[in-house]
Specification:
Elements lengths: L2 H8 L5 E4 L3 H17 L4 E4 L2 H9 L3 E2 L10 E5 L2 E2 L5 E2 L6 H9 L4 E6 L12 E6 L4 H10 L3 E4 L1 E2 L2 E2 L7 E6 L6 H9 L4 E4 L1 E2 L5 E6 L4 E7 L7
Parallel strand pairs: 1-2, 1-4, 2-3, 4-7, 7-15
Antiparallel strand pairs: 5-6, 6-14, 8-12, 8-13, 9-12, 10-11, 15-16
Helix pairs in contact: 1-2, 2-3
């Protein structure tokens, strides 16, 4: 059983699912659509990005807004870093704000990640995305620099990247983060910051895929403290 198949198994009884963004999440969306087509079951999905919404519609998944569901049974998403506590860095795919909202609205957050995403400490891969208001971009970069980070706004073809929410992304260069919760608080205290890629205490299950086929190598579960 590969990681995507295991995620399908864990969400078999779900009627409302959060649909993450990125390659791993896209594989799950495609597999979910195939399962629904074969079983004629009904699952409503909340997409975390416009790209995921497009994939879900193509897969035949009914899409709804968060306003139309009380609580999501689960969300299946990917991650860019996973530490031994199952804390995460997400957002390299630029959908971090909606991903965090949808994850917070879910009873269970299931993460699919390749072995290369496992790190001894968050920040190990050297990039923490932060979403900021366009009006506050220069101010936020200055304040992030004051926290010892190395902020760089995402530009494509010379133009600032714009998220689905109309904001910009600042990639903060970082080494291993000694105190992720303190850093999260410090960044969020900057006026103009609307979200960070630190997902702390949110993941319940992490399915570790191995190789291009996402063969299931390990299944990690949160066993301490519960969700924050």
């Amino acid at each position: 059983m590969n990681a995507v198949e295991r995620a399908l198994e864990l969400t078999r009884e779900a009627t409302a699912l959060g649909l993450g963004s990125g390659r791993a999440a896209a594989r799950f969306v495609e597999a979910l659509g195939a399962r629904l087509s074969a079983t004629k079951a009904r699952v409503r999905g909340v997409a975390t990005s416009e790209e995921t919404a497009r994939l879900a519609r193509e897969a035949g998944i009914e899409l709804v807004s968060l306003a139309e569901v009380n609580t999501l049974d689960a969300t299946v998403d990917g991650a860019d870093e996973v530490d031994p506590r199952l804390d995460l860095i997400k957002g390299w795919g630029r959908a971090l704000l909606r991903e965090k909202v949808v994850a917070a609205a879910s009873r269970t957050l299931i993460i699919i990640a390749g072995e290369e995403k496992l790190v001894p400490a968050l920040g190990h891969r050297g990039k923490l995305p932060v979403e900021v208001l366009p009006f506050a971009l220069a101010f936020c970069e200055k304040k992030l620099r004051g926290l010892g980070l190395e902020p760089k706004a995402d530009r494509r073809d010379g133009k600032l990247f714009v998220t689905d929410n109309g904001n910009h992304i600042v990639d903060c260069g970082t080494g291993p983060i000694a105190d992720p919760r303190r850093l999260e608080e410090d960044i969020r205290s900057i006026p103009g910051v609307v979200g960070t890629g630190l997902f702390l205490g949110m993941a319940d299950v992490v399915l570790i895929g191995k190789g291009d086929r996402m063969e299931l190598a390990d299944e990690m579960r949160r066993t301490h403290g519960g969700k924050r």
